Amino acid sequence: MRSSLREVMSRFATGVIVVSVGGDQPHGMTANAFTSVSLDPPQVLCCIGHSTVMHGAISGSARFAVSVLGADQQDIARHFADKDRPLGAAQFASVGWRPGPHSGAPLLSGALGWLECELTRSHESGDHTIFIGSVLEAGNGDEGPGLLFHRGSFASSDGVGSDSGRVRTLR
Q1: Quick one: which of 34, 61, 82, 159 is 20 to 30 A from 124 by CA?
Q2: What pTM, to 2 d.p., does this model score?
Q3: Secretion signal: which residues (predicted)?
Q4: Which numeric CATH code is attached to 2-169?
């Protein structure tokens, strides 16, 4: 069942984000299990595996940030998905960022948008925890197509939502 579920879910194109926490040991992680929950009050959720460093980081922090990646940021997505990258502040050394004014969490330069959130709830579900955050601040960044993940590869949302919309695999 696990492999068939993975295969079916790979056909569902998702946006790509980096979720981050600040503090003495800042941490970032690429994720695609992220969505809006509510507009009133503004809330989002992200699903984080129990075995990840981010699980402990977000569980121990009252606040986190989300950077929505653009199609030209696949190197950043790969960096924050690499389990062998340095931990703590060192993982941000090669990436442009600024601390969020509400969370202190890194907001990545060049992102299409940012959210700063206060952790309000968490729900255990299988091998992940669903973290729900109330949005404290939202901001737009660069214009351009979004970075998608589809069938195990990065793709671009060039033109999605228009008559000429398409998903283009990035090589």
Answers
A1: 82
A2: 0.89
A3: none
A4: 2.30.110.10
